[in-house]
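Protein modeling request. Please complete all fields; requests missing the sequence field cannot be processed.
Requester role: graduate student
Desired output: 3D structure, token encoding
Chains: 1
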Amino acid sequence: MKRTPKLVFIAAVLLMAACSGASELSNTNTAGTNALYPSWYGAYEFSSDSSNFYARATAVASVADMAKVRAEKEARALLESYIAQELEDVRSELERDGSSLVKEPNFILILRNAHLKVEKEALVVDTEHVEKEGVYRGFAKVEISKQTLKKIIESGFGSKDSYKKEYLESPAFMELIN
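Delivered output (178 residues):
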């Protein structure tokens, strides 16, 4: 009986919370609403379209060129990181589907070494800088085509034809690059 008032109070609070209306959340700090960001920068650091993967980054420095160089390096690293996750998702899906090849340590090592080449192969699409109160903010956008990514992975597997066939012809990888 001592718990009854507490339970009634908890029930009342939960009922009020459940009956309150939901409000729409919005991100007001996007490139479109912040004059500091270039119009091409976009709201996401990683994206893709039908033919390319893109990454965007920003960095600060006391010199304009250094801010842009740092932003470019960060964008390249982000692109490689996001693509690495996408490639690992493909490998995991193959493993869930019963592939024993993709579990082999050599396969995993080859795949990881291959996607490290993404940073070097990425192309700079846009760079820009702005100055505010003596500090420069650099912006960079890099891309890599889906076909280039396929060639990188294919060459990474080298003469391991069974690895190439298993990975590159999988529905998950085909979906990633198409």
